[in-house]
Amino acid sequence: MFTAQFGTGTICEVNGYEVDSGVSHTPSSREELMQGARQRAEALEAKLRGDGVVVDFFVGVEGGLDVVVEGGIRRVFLESWAYVCNRERGHFGCSGSIELPPALAEKVLSQGVELAAAIDEFAGAVGIRDGQGAWGVLSRNLISRQDSFRIATIAAFAPFYNSAMYRSAAAAAG
Prior knowledge:
The protein is of the alpha+beta class. 41% of the residues lie in helices and 25% in strands. The longest helix has 21 residues, at 30-50.
């Protein structure tokens, strides 16, 4: 547990829980990443409700790969996704993307090696996932795994903390 303070003076108590995503260990599509993040938030909501714990928001995060073909070439990107919901609505947010080297992508996608094990092998280290993560290795520590999930979570919270903008955009579209 930790406490976070936002620029508006809002103070939040943040508790971490481990819940299953219901997707593969290394998701390999944007759809699977989004599904994993949403299912983690929903599993957390069910767990806490069953325990009688009352909270304002449920957050699920999922990291993995987004595979696209661009110019006839397969490109594989590492992404971090978050889903934030309350009892009324939910929204997604995503970090940026960083392209995997083709040999690393091949190891994960074609040989079925989990990204955590593959990045350890490629970087010649152990336990990278628990520290800087693949993001840190690929960006030479300019962006950490934690940074990527922080950005995704902030983006997913946007419709809640900037609700006036989202209501205005919905009204203009309707």
